[in-house]
Specification:
Two copies of one chain form a homodimer. The longest helix of chain A is centred in the middle third of the chain and has 21 residues. Chain A is 42% helix and 18% strand. Chain A is built from 13 helices and eleven strands. By secondary structure, the first copy, chain A, is α/β, with parallel strands linked by helices. In chain A, the strands form three sheets. A seven-stranded mixed sheet of chain A has the order 1-2-9-6-5-3-4, with helices on both faces. Chains A and B meet through helix 2, strand 7 and strand 8 of A and helix 2, strand 7, strand 8 and strand 10 of B.
Chain lengths: 365, 365
């Protein structure tokens, strides 16, 4: 007997660019993928680690379409224009026209690159997100941010291009490494911190079940994370204002990732350290209490996430890299701070001293 | 005494993406460029031929902004991802943030690349078009199509990204070569053919004044061309339908340009030959009269434009390259045909025989 899968469906509300997020366990092999492919052809973009795990399952869902496959190497260091061009080569060699659909099967790197390729190819074709990491499921697959890195900065090139659908199956999380799993937990904790203190409390209470990857608990965590993100994205698709709070810890975190050339900390590890640094600035600016920070640090450490930047980094490294961040406007750095747990704000008036002493402290051996 | 310049202003009506097209003689040195730059910084993207001619004039219009300059080599063969990346390098090295503005000072290649760079940089910044060729003034600077070529096809990568303003000065046309000038005339004639038979008649009557580059006649021709393009773009920004008629002759023309790797015919020369091929298919499909084609061929020849594809090209070359065109949808090739002079239609039901015999005839020695 095949167990009937419970599937939760959220809707990202963006007028004629609205789309569903389908969340379940085992739904990968049941999803009506073809109903989201308008033309006759599609290109699945994936990576070498995913191929033996899920490629056949997805191919079985698109039997009535002409399918090509593009397999990229695994890793953030390949998220650049050079590897993006391999996707374009494939599309052109196989004569994909404007009616094609791209399918991103993989983690955040695959999703971001596939989305960007879809937004540029023949000035824009649709794409579908099938995220296979916890990080991609709760963050990068939702909201339409696409892009690649540049040697001089993370995600510096990209577009806003919403997917036609997001398909999330928690069963795929079983094959994730512990580090990759925890990297996703950092973003889940972020949603509690910026917008939903009840959710933060819930994560604390359910930390053990989450660490054990209990499916039903994971579905709840993913759904609540995606719901928060959807709400914020619907209110501010192109990040003119409120959407910026999703970047808690990211200005610090991106500096870490760029410094290490994407070969050290995972994204969630970098923003874990970054969120604590943003909370330190918040504290020095008169928000929060020391006890709040300890509580968050304990939870991050429970998931074995980094609470400090890499020891090779100096305050001057942060400054140089942070001033290249997309959050800099007219030369002023903006940071996401926490007013309290569950309430973020975007601030470009914080004192330089708060930032300097945060960097000094964080970079102390 | 400084002569007061007559400036015509058209408006491209696209809601919150609307913008003005300012057309005049001598207005380059009088335009309030700074009012279109929101932030403190801007990057002028131009090419090595333009620098000695107009760069200082433009720099004098943005004295209160911090300006960087990116100089690209001149030519369609540099309109690719590799040279696009040079623009990104410059923006990042000079710490341009999301509030920057790009200024395209040059022909269609510079405009297309600068617009695409603006659409991708930090997921989108504004840009201004200052077209310095007749072709760019009447065509590529208006309508928001941006992009670069790929080895396997022209303009295969790009976006729709509308400029903040288009500044057209006919004085700059004085330095154009005869070939470059005629290349622009091909697009002007196109507007008459697809949508405005009175304009076609007017071009015929004013051919000598146009060839002599009489400024007042040119302003009229540019204004009428831009007005037609604006109207079509406003009705169909992302080319879901009617905008397609702007591509009369382009499916054939792009095949020529791709075949020659952008080193042979100029764009206008390629679409000149392409328009005659599209008219030949139209004739075979029962539209038009032979006399119409002769009349158009005479006018194109008057401006010394190509009326045949390059002699190295075979029908099979066209077929291979045309099937990679963006106008192919679900495997069916769509062509812009002329129902009569001044009235175009988009057709994917023409007989293969009409196309085949057109190609055979056109490729005959």
């Amino acid at each position: 007997m095949v167990e009937k899968t419970k599937v939760e469906t959220l809707h990202v509300d963006l007028g004629d660019r609205s789309y569903p997020i389908c969340i379940g366990a085992g739904n990968l092999s049941q999803f009506d993928l073809e109903s989201y492919i308008n033309g006759d052809k599609a290109l699945i973009v994936t990576n070498e680690l995913i191929v033996p795990l899920y490629l056949e399952t997805i191919k079985a869902r698109v039997k009535n379409k002409s399918i090509d496959i593009m397999i990229l190497p695994d890793g953030e260091q390949f998220k650049n224009l050079e590897y993006l061009n391999l996707i374009f080569n494939k599309l052109l060699e196989e004569n994909h026209d404007r009616k094609t659909t791209l399918i991103a099967l993989g983690g955040g790197v695959i999703g971001d690159m596939t989305g960007f390729a879809a937004s540029c190819y023949q000035r824009g074709v649709p794409f579908i997100q099938i995220p296979t990491t916890l990080l991609a499921q709760v963050d990068s697959s939702v909201g339409g941010k696409t892009g690649v890195n540049h040697l001089l900065g993370k995600n510096m090139l990209g577009s806003f291009h919403q997917p036609a659908a997001v398909l999330i199956d928690v069963d795929v999380l079983g094959t994730l490494s512990d580090r990759q799993f925890s990297s996703g937990m950092a973003e889940i904790i972020k949603y509690g911190l910026i917008a939903d203190v009840d959710f933060f409390d819930w994560i604390e209470s359910n930390r053990t079940r989450l660490l054990e990857r209990d499916k039903s608990t994971l579905i709840t965590a993913i759904e609540r994370s995606c719901a928060t993100k959807s709400k914020i994205v619907s209110a501010d698709e192109t990040e003119m204002g409120i959407r910026g709070i999703l970047n808690l810890g990211h200005t610090f975190g991106h500096a870490i990732e760029t410094f290490q050339n994407y070969r050290g900390y995972l994204h969630g590890e970098a923003i874990s350290a970054g969120m604590l640094m943003a909370m330190s600035v918040s504290l020095k600016e008169g928000y929060l209490a020391k006890g709040n920070i300890d509580r968050v640090e304990n939870l991050l450490a429970f998931f074995d996430l980094s609470t400090k930047p890499p020891k090779e980094m100096m305050p001057s490294d942060f400054k140089k890299l942070m001033w290249r961040d997309k959050k800099v406007q007219n030369g002023r750095l903006r940071l996401v701070l926490l007013e309290r747990l569950g309430k973020a704000l975007i601030d470009d008036k914080f004192s330089q001293l708060s930032l300097d002493s945060t960097l000094e402290n964080a970079c102390k051996p």
